[in-house]
Amino acid sequence: MLRTCLLGLIGLAAFSPPATAATEYCVGTFGQFQAALDDAEVDIADSLIKVRAGTYTLSNDLSYATNLEYVVPAGRLTIRGGYDVGCNNYSLTPGATTLVSSNQSKLSIRTSTGSATVAGMTFQGTHLRMFSPVLSDCPSQRRTISLSRVRIDQAMFEAIGWCHDVMVENSLFSNGVTIPDTNYAASTGVGIYLAFDEDSYDSASTLTMVNSSVINGRLDLISNDSQGLGTAFLYNSIFSRDAGNDITAEANLLAMNSRFDGITFESGGMLLPGSSGNVSAAPQLDSSYVPQPGSAMINAGTAIVPDGLPSVDHAGGDRVVGPRVDIGALESAVDGSGTFTVTNTSSAGTGSLAKALENANLAPGFNRIAFNIPGSCPRTIALAGALQVHESVSFDGRSQPGSQSNSSEIGFNAVPCVVLSGAGGIGIEAMNNIGSGYVAANGLAFEGFDLAIALAFGEGHSIHGNQFGGRIGNSGPLLSGNVQAIGLVGGGLTVVGGNSLAFRNLIGGSSDVGVLITTFLGAGGDNNRVSGNLIGLDKDGNGALPNGTGIRINGGFNRISGNRIGGNTVDGILLSGASAESNEITNNSIGGGLGALSLTAGNGRMGVMVQSDAHDNQITDNSIGRNGDDGVRIMASAGGRNRIAGNRIARNSALGIDLGSNGVSNNDPDPQFCDPTLGCAGNGGQNFPVIETAQLRSSGFFPAGRPIRVQGTLRSTIGGPYRLEVFAGSSCDDNGHGEGQTPIMASFLTIDNAPYCPGGGPICQVCDSFNCTAAFTIWLPEAEVAIGDTLTMTATSASGSTSEFSTCMSVTEEPDNDLIFANGFDN
User: Which of 496, 618, 677, 789 has its CA 20 to 30 A from that of 779?
Assistant: First the structure.
């Protein structure tokens, strides 16, 4: 779609890269709150607004609107409530910070290029609106609008996801009241517009809702269906209203372990295959919306959510009490499990860990093993053999006195006070008669095993808050390493880590691999989550505590997200084998920092290595830097359709992206026909774009806020659309190609079956071997690119195969085209 305007002479704002640390604001009045929002719009940084505990009465709207974001970069905005007077600590008590309105005032957050989060806030009669304006210019990768532990009563939450995906967890929406002058149905509690900006993305935006409740209000999902339906992923959530269906959806829904009476689908929306575990039973909630004893919501949820469960519920209590998480925003205190307590460090006999597990295996259902061993921290248990699990069980290392969970943003300050020590062999092992049962292990340390945790059977395992390698605490013993720390061998549906700081694992010191995800007898190794861990890095989050390889994957449909993976002696992540398909590697830090200086250790070889028929994987929105060889390597032996998009890649010792043989691969005819299952080997050697000019225009026609014109060509197979992504950096590599330090913008290009004749002239590039040439023009925002910056590009085919980075081009100023001066009238 065309979004241009006629602009006169425009001065170029000075370019400053976003700061790495957030600018913090401490507010305690309406005026301070609005002033902080105003300052955050233009502080050229990530912004954290800390709102003190208390009740704030709104008679007017609070507003954040990044009107200058295409000139002054917008960072991530976080608004968090519950802080003390000095804004040093915050409370998890619901309602600690409440915005009250009697005239339907609202907090409005508008941005197209930044992410925004609201956490720990209560809105009483006050609406919350977070949106990217429709038809605004979006960045190359979607940003996120997210809520965590938010309560909205007698009001509505609205999100418009033109440039954003929407994420909601642990939030409670009650007694919905629709925002005035909107098109949502009456009593809508949550309204989400899942939009499709076809100029920037190849699909519509998404909603992910985890452990939330919409009570006495509806969830209303809207899509611009003529261009493509959005998708909502609903996990462990309650939707309940007195009359009528609970959900209206112009969208596709994947609903897992959620509660609703009915869904009204419109415009072709549907309940997607794979939806399961849903119920329609009355939720039986008390006045605080907690499931009462006997409620079908209790222990009915799933731990398999995109980035793992949070550690606490909406009210700040444990998110999981009993064998499984409850459905809804609040967790019931009903446990229902047996507890067996370890009271000594003996390898066998009364009070030992082995005896506690023996008793747990004999007691049907879910049981918990607690620790209360006298003596100082840590206490070491030398195992005589593997702890073989036959029934669902939780090894709760946090219960040992003195244990401490992690609270560090980038490191690991947890103190596990129970160390399991082996002389080779396996530490904890799920056995084949566990059925659909699971193992939970948290707050433990492991040393000396060939494989510390082996999960070949069962499903829904949870491994969080543990330490593999390194020193216990600040001055405790130094753990000996393991050969392999965690092995998901044939099993599936396991979560390693989570999206909570307390759930982070420290995984280092393994001579072979930190996390192994693989098939067993040709099956399994799929649908696991590895999230929020330190892998190969020591407790400070910077120094090396190396594994051989950080994560090795020979399975499919796994999600690796939010981890810091560095310091490993070989690869950060290795994808290998035909079973390694459709894995998602997203939002990780892989290697060291991208700036001129970095304290974080890179990986010894590749950041991400793809080989041996691995195919259809997505490597998106990661930071990949300072690795000893390539940032991302797609070997010639790999399959195709491995998508590499939206990453920040820089300062690797070799190429940012390397396809096939070592070094830059020159453009040549791309293959037309490929293996239907594996795709074209080595991403088919997908050609990269050729940049011909990159100029700042100061006059004439150009899109508002985007005066930098990039022109060039792509030669590849006929058809498309190809996704062209532009990146900026401070310099080129010595080979003349870029690494893609900062993703700027994406556009789409279709290649017609026709000769390309530049300028309509007589010299044309003809088609050959099903390859033709097409020209492109992309306009970039001045907020993120300045004169002298270098640009590079990638091309991704419609099937998902991404190229290497193109040759670089420096941004120059447009030549003086003033006709008066050009004709000599300046003399």
Answer: 618
Query: What is the residue whose two structure tokens read 């082995």?
Result: 354
Please report where in the chains the tokens 């009355």 appear, as a residue.
282
Question: Which among 747, 748, 746, 691 has a CA at the least distance from the CA of 719?
Answer: 748
C-alpha–C-alpha distance, residues 392 and 361, integer Å: 8
pLDDT value, residue 490 = 87
Q: How many other CB atoms sit within 10 Å of the CB of residue 350?
A: 9
- Identify which of 609, 633, 650, 612 has the alpha carbon closest to the alpha carbon of residue 739: 650
Q: Where are the alpha helices (DSSP H) in 259-373?
A: 353-362
Candidates 50, 43, 48; CA nearest to 26 is 50
Q: Are 320 and 334 in contact (CB under 8 A)?
A: no
In this prediction, residue 703 carries a pLDDT of: 84
CB atoms within 10 A of CB 405: 19
pLDDT in tens, 712-763: 999 999 999 999 999 999 889 999 999 999 999 999 999 999 999 998 888 9
Segments in the chain below pLDDT 50: 1-20, 818-827
Token duo for residue 372: 């209360």
Residue 826: CB atoms within 10 A of its CB come to 8
Distance separating alpha carbons of residues 825 and 827, to the nearest angstrom:
5
The pTM (predicted TM-score) of the whole model is 0.91
The model's pLDDT over 533-577, given as tens digits with 9 standing for 90+, comes to: 999 999 999 999 999 999 999 999 999 999 999 999 999 999 999
Please state, in angstroms and as integers, the Cα–Cα distance from residue 696 to each residue in 388, 600, 743, 798, 812, following that order. Answer: 66, 36, 18, 30, 6
CB of 213 closer than 8 Å to CB of 315: no
Distance CA 275, CA 256 (A): 5
pLDDT at 816: 67
Structural contact between residues 488 and 522, judged by C-beta atoms closer than 8 angstroms: no
Nearest Cα neighbor of 409 from 495, 344, 502, 303 is 502
Contact 129, 173 (CB under 8 A): no
pLDDT of residue 439: 96
**Alpha carbon of 688 to those of 204, 684, 727, 799, 804: distances in Å?**
26, 12, 13, 15, 6
Burial 682-720 (b: 16+ CB within 10 A, else e): bbbbbbbbbbeebbbbbeeebbbbbbbbbebbbbbbebb
